[in-house]
Structures are given as structure tokens and as C-alpha cells.
Amino acid sequence: MSDHARHSVKLFRYTALDRSGGKLAGEMEGDSRDSVLAHLQTLGHFPVEVSETRKPAPAPGMTGFSGRPSSSQLTLLTHELAMLLKAGLPLDRSLQLLATDAGSKSLSQLVMRLHAEISGGKSLYEAMAAQGGVFPPVYTNMVRIAEASGTLDAVLERIAQSRQRAEKLRGKVLSASLYPALLVTVAVAAVVLMLVFVVPRFKEMVMQAGSEAPAAAAAVFAMSDWLIANGVMLLLALCAGAAGLTLLMRQPSSREATETALLRLPLIGHIVRLSLTVAFCRTLGVLLENGVELPVAMRLVRDVSGNRSAAAALERAYDNLRKGRSFIDPLAHSGLFPPVVINMLRVGEETGGLTRSLLHMADLFEDKLDTSVQRTLTLLEPVIILLVSGFIATVIISILSAVISINDLAL
């Protein structure tokens, strides 16, 4: 596991000189001061001063828990800014228009801060980098290169398209997951209602009749009694367990263990691997397509991979690149990416068509991921229905057996 995966992300304020001698100032997230220094050097800057600072608190009146615009709002901002620039409007005027029609207070304040930074003489890249991590490193570095090459409008449109693809895929997964989640919620609620309100009435009937309940019915009665007596404590325990699990997942070792366990699951592991493949191919392909050098692109992909096993493999690939070796071997040894991806990367590296290969594989595996998610959830739905139906049927049959025992006693 790399050092990046072991430390929590901090915010640093930096001052640096670019290749032309111009002064840069802004904020950057990183594991440590050394990692920020190394990142600035990788970007071609000469660091002058780097010091840790506190992450900004949400401004009053901002929406959401973090006070930051949502991912979809940033995508819309990117798309609209690209359209205005293509129409021939200067950057500062475009931001003024977007600030007046942002649609949310948090987005409007972000655009106004960008406009203020640019009016003060900073570039769009510098203004975005000074927003405390609102814009991902992949985003800001593509903007930096676009400004240097004079293709800002085109690159912003590509960024928007890439983000729209990712958000569309996330939306499909969420929509497909809603029905199974609703099934589980309704099933749990139905079982609780039966045990709390229905079963006690039948138990009272059996007790008044003086008959002995069958073993299955007695077990259901005992379950009902326990739930009624300990329901509040159970609810509190579930809430405490959820909070504890959330805190535990923030620990690097616990998160790594969970991610490893997910990768080993038969259906979920396949989906996780496909998701990592799509994110890796799409992000690296878009970065290379927009002029980011391969070592810098690999570092950025590592930082946004979202999976510690993948981050460790990408870190080894980045180290190979710095030493003049092929970056593909560490990816092949990780076992996270399908063999066809590794083979296509080798062909692309040998023929000089790496960017084209990456974008082609991103489209291909995005379709596979969509199909796999749909199939997995389609399989889960009948399994959930059968399990829930079986449990409810067991409860009903147990109660009916007790009722029948009362009738037998009356005869």
C-alpha cells in the first residue's frame, strides 16, 4: 500500500513559479507537504512555498452539508461555459452571465469567486485550483493545458461530455437499485408489523384456549415477545451500528479490507472490476487526448481511482514510468483489469495509439458494465422475493398451526 493510501487528505496553500517565470498561488489537496511539492514539480512548476491550511468552512446560506455545488451542477456549469466561449464571449463576461443564472446559491457563489480570481489577474486554472478542491485535479489540469494551447472551449466541452457519461452510468445503477431496495424495505416493514401487531393477538387466543402451541408457533410467539420488549433498544443499536460502521469505513485498513472483500464476491466483484476499468480507461484516455503527458496523467488517475487496491497498482505503474519502464506490467499483475484491456494497452503503447485504444475500451466496458448491473439486479429481485415470501409464509403457517391446535382441542 502506498503512502498516499495511508494518510488522510489535507489542504495546502502553495506559491510557485511556472515555466515562464510567472507566479502561481492557490490551494491543493494532498497526503503531505512532500506529495504536494512532488505534484507541483510534476506539473512543471517550481514550488516556492507550501504550507498546510485548514479546509474552508461552508459559507452561510450555502446549500448542502458541504456548501459545494453538486457534481451535476459542476457538469452543467462546464457545459454552459464551453457554449459561451464558443459563441465568442470573453471568459470574464461568460462567468458574469453564469453567476446571474446559476440556479443555486452555492453554484452562483462559486462562479463569482472564479470571476473575482480571474479579474485579479489569475488564469482559469489558477482560479479553479484556489477553490479548495471543488474542482477535481483531473479537471483543473486539463483546463491548465487547454489554456496553454488556446483550446479552452473545446476541452471544457470534452470535460462536460466525460462527466455526463459518468453521471449517466451512476444514474442507471441507482435507478436499477431502487426496486430491490424498496422490496427489502417493504418486506422488513411487513414482518415487523406482523410480529408486533398480528402475532400477539393469535398468541392471546392460544393462551385463552389453554392449549399448548406447536413448536414453530411458540418460536414465532417468542420472537414477537422479544421484539416488543426490545424494539426501541434494537432500533438504537442499529443506529449506533450504522454510525460505528461509517466511522470504521473512514479508517484506511477497514476500507481496504472491505474493498478487497467486495472484489472477491462472485457478482459484485465483477461489477467493481468493470467500474474500475471504465473509470481508468475513460479518465486516462480523456487526459491523453487533451495533451496531458502520460506520467502526469497516470498520477492524476491514481489520485481519483477511488479504490485503494487500484491506487496501489497505479502507483507502481507511475513509478515504472518515472524509471523509463512500461507502465502496463504492474496493471497486469494487479489482476484488477481484464486481460483484453492489458493486451489492448500493449498494442496501443507499441503502435502509438494508446489514446484511441483507451477511449474505445471505455465505451466497450461501459456497455458491459451497464449489462452486468442489469443482469445482477434482475437475478437479485426474485431471490429477495423468494426469501421474504418464505419467511412470511413460515410465520403464517406457524400461526395457523396454533389456530388449528385450538380447534382440535375444542373438538
Q: Can you describe this structure?
A:
With 411 residues, the protein is mostly helical. Helices cover 74% and strands 6% of the residues. It folds into 3 domains: 1-57, no CATH class; 71-135, no CATH class; 160-411, no CATH class. The protein has a 3-stranded antiparallel sheet. A hairpin with a 5-residue loop joins strand 1 and strand 2. The model is unreliable at 1-7 and 56-66 (pLDDT under 50).
Summarize the model shown.
The chain has 411 residues and is mainly alpha-helical. The protein is built from 16 helices and three strands. It has three domains: 1-57, no CATH class; 71-135, no CATH class; 160-411, no CATH class.
Feature tags:
mainly alpha, disordered N terminus, 3 domains, elongated, 16 helices, 411 residues, three-stranded antiparallel beta sheet, single chain
